[in-house]
C-alpha cells in the first residue's frame, strides 16, 4: 500500500455553548464539531490532525529535553552569540525554575504540543461512537486516538510528574484550567488507553504504514510498566509483541533507520514520526539543527549531499559527548553508523574536529529540507525491555538471550554479566549505545534514579575540562551549570499564568 503521509487538515473545533441541543441552532455553513464529525472521512481527517504535532515536537524540542539534557550530547557554545539561550540552559542543567515553574521556551512548546494531541484525540473519542460507519474502520481510528492520547500523556508525566488530566473536550473557559493530576492517576489513564488501543488497532502487517499499530500500543504499555517497575506485568506484554507482531531486527544496524526517501517503517520499526522532504510542508531539518557550526558550504556538502550546500553559523546542538563516544566497546559497529566527524575551519575552539550525529545525516536534495523519519520505538528496544524485565525478576539466563541478540548485530561478543547487578548495568549501558540520539537517555536516568549520580559526575568533568566539551579556549560553563538536577522540569510559566492550579 502506498504510504499516505499524515498531514494537517484545516480543522476548527468550535466551543459548544448551551448543552440543550433543542435550544442550540448550529449554522450549517460553519465548520464546527457539530457539523464536521458526521462521516468516516471526517474522523479520518481528525485522526490525521492528531498526529501532526509530533512532527514539530521531534524536529524541534524532544531531543533538547530528552537527549541533550543528559550526558549523551551537549551544546557547543559559540561565544560570539553573547547571551545564554534556553537550549543551552537545558544542556547545562541550569533551567531557571522558581515555585515549580519555568519560562524556558523548550518546556513550553513541548507541553503545548502534547496537549494539542490530547485535545484532538479527546474530540475524536467524544464523538466517534455516535456516528455510524464500518466497525473495523471505527475501531482502527478510535485505537489511534487512544494511542496518541496515551503517548502524549506518557511524555508529559515523565517530563513533569504532575500535569492537568483532560479526558473530554474543553467546552468553556472554566474547563480549561484543570487541577494537576498525580503521577499515579496519570499512569492509570495511560494504562487504560494503551490497553484499549492495543485491542482495537491492527498489527503492523494490516495497518497503513506510519500509523499506530497494536504492537506500538503494547510497547507503550510495556514501557509504562517498566517505568513503574511492574516487571511481572511488562513481561507478557513484551512476549506478545515479540511472538505475535512480526517485527525483526534489520541485519545491519545502519539500515534500522530510514533514509530521507526510503526504508521507512521497516521491519524493525514499531513507531516512527513521518517526514517527507519537499515543498509540501511535511519535511524536517534535524541534521541542520544538530550539525556543528560555523560550517562552510564546502565542509557541509559531504554530510548533506545537497545540490545547494550552504554555510551555517547557528549555535551547535546535540553534539555527541566524549563520554558517550567512550561508551562504545572496541569493534562496535554502531559507533561508525551513529557518529562521524567534521573539521570546522571557522570555529574558535582549538580542536577544530567535532563529532556529529551521523545517524540522521542522510543525503537529500535541498539545503535545510530533509525527509528521514524519526525512530520512536524500534524492535531493538523491545528486546532490551524484555532483557531488563526478565533480569529484574531474577531470570538472568533468559535476559541474556535477548541482550545478546542486540550485541550480536553490533558485532560484539555475548555479555559477560553473571549476576543480576552486573546484568542490570550491562543492559543500562547497552541501551545507551543502541538507542543513542533517540531521546531515551534522560528517561533512563530518571526511571532508574541515577540523575544526581551520573549527571553530577558528568557535570564535574565538563567544568574541569571545558575544552574537551567544545568550549573555545578561555570559555567556561556558566556558574549555575549542573545545579538543577531534578527528575522533572518545572511547568511552563506562561501556562501557570492562565490557571490557579500551578
TrEMBL record:
Classification via SUPFAM superfamilies: TPR-like (SSF48452)
Where in or outside the cell is it found?
Cell outer membrane
Q: Which residues cross the membrane?
A: none
Name the UniProt record assigns to this protein: RagB/SusD family nutrient uptake outer membrane protein
Q: State whether keyword Membrane applies.
A: yes
The terms describing its cellular component in GO are: cell outer membrane
Main subcellular localization, coarse class? membrane
The organism of origin for this protein:
Dyadobacter fanqingshengii
Q: Does the keyword Membrane apply?
A: yes
What taxonomic lineage is listed for the species of origin?
A: Bacteria, Pseudomonadati, Bacteroidota, Cytophagia, Cytophagales
Q: Name one Pfam family in it.
A: SusD-like_3
Q: Which superkingdom does the taxonomy of this entry point to?
A: Bacteria
UniProt keywords (A-Z) are: Cell outer membrane, Membrane, Signal
Domain RagB/SusD per the UniProt entry, residue ranges: 341-477
Q: Which family does it belong to?
A: Belongs to the SusD family.
Task: Tell me where in this chain the SusD-like N-terminal domain is found.
Answer: 22-225
Amino acid at each position: 500500500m502506498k504510504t499516505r503521509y499524515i498531514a494537517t487538515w484545516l480543522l476548527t473545533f468550535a466551543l459548544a455553548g448551551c448543552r440543550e441541543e433543542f435550544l442550540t441552532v448550529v449554522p450549517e455553513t460553519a465548520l464546527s464539531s457539530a457539523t464536521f464529525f458526521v462521516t468516516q472521512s471526517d474522523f479520518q481527517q481528525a485522526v490525521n490532525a492528531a498526529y501532526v504535532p509530533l512532527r514539530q515536537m521531534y524536529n524541534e524540542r524532544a531531543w533538547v529535553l530528552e537527549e541533550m539534557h543528559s550526558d549523551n550530547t551537549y551544546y557547543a557554545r559559540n561565544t560570539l552569540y553573547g547571551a545564554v539561550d534556553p537550549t543551552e540552559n537545558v544542556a547545562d542543567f541550569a533551567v531557571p525554575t522558581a515555585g515549580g515553574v519555568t519560562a524556558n521556551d523548550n518546556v513550553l512548546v513541548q507541553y503545548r504540543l502534547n496537549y494539542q494531541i490530547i485535545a484532538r484525540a479527546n474530540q475524536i473519542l467524544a464523538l466517534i461512537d455516535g456516528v455510524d460507519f464500518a466497525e473495523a474502520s471505527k475501531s482502527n481510528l478510535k485505537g489511534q486516538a487512544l494511542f496518541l492520547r496515551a503517548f502524549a500523556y506518557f511524555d508529559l508525566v515523565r517530563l513533569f510528574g504532575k500535569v492537568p488530566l483532560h479526558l473530554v473536550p474543553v467546552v468553556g473557559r472554566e474547563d480549561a484550567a484543570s487541577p494537576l493530576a498525580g503521577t499515579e492517576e496519570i499512569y492509570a489513564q495511560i494504562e487504560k488507553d494503551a490497553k484499549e488501543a492495543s485491542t482495537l488497532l491492527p498489527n503492523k502487517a494490516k495497518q497503513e504504514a506510519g500509523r499506530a499499530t497494536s504492537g506500538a500500543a503494547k510497547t507503550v504499555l510495556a514501557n509504562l510498566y517498566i517505568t513503574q517497575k511492574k516487571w511481572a506485568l511488562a513481561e507478557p506484554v513484551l512476549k506478545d509483541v515479540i511472538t505475535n507482531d512480526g517485527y525483526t531486527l534489520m541485519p545491519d544496524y545502519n539500515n534500522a533507520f530510514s533514509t530521507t526517501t526510503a526504508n521507512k517503517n521497516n521491519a524493525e520499526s514499531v513507531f516512527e514520526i513521518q517526514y517527507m522532504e519537499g515543498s509540501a510542508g511535511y519535511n524536517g531539518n534535524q541534521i541542520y539543527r544538530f550539525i556543528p557550526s560555523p560550517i562552510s558550504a564546502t565542509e557541509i556538502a559531504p554530510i548533506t549531499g545537497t545540490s545547494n550546500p550552504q554555510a551555517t553559523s547557528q549555535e551547535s546542538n546535540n553534539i555527541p559527548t566524549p563520554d558517550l563516544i567512550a561508551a562504545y566497546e572496541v569493534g562496535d559497529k554502531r559507533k561508525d553508523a551513529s557518529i562521524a566527524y567534521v573539521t570546522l575551519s571557522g570555529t574558535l575552539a582549538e580542536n577544530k574536529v567535532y563529532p556529529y550525529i551521523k545517524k540522521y545525516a542522510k543525503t537529500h536534495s535541498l539545503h535545510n529540507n530533509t525527509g528521514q523519519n524519526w525512530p520512536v520505538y524500534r524492535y531493538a528496544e523491545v528486546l532490551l525491555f524484555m532483557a531488563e524485565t526478565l533480569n529484574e525478576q531474577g531470570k538472568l539466563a533468559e535476559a541474556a538471550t535477548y541482550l545478546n541478540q542486540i550485541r550480536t548485530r553490533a558485532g560484539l561478543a555475548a555479555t559477560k554479566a553473571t549476576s543480576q547487578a552486573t546484568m542490570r548495568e550491562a543492559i543500562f549501558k547497552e541501551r545507551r549505545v543502541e538507542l543513542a540520539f533517540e531521546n531515551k537517555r534522560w528517561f533512563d536516568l530518571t526511571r532508574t534514579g541515577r540523575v544526581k549520580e551520573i549527571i553530577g559526575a558528568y557535570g564535574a568533568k565538563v567544568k574541569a575540562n571545558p575544552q574537551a566539551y567544545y568550549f573555545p579556549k578561555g570559555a567556561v560553563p556558566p556558574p549555575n551549570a549542573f545545579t538543577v538536577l531534578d527528575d522533572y522540569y518545572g511547568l511552563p510559566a506562561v501556562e501557570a499564568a492562565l490557571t490557579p492550579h500551578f
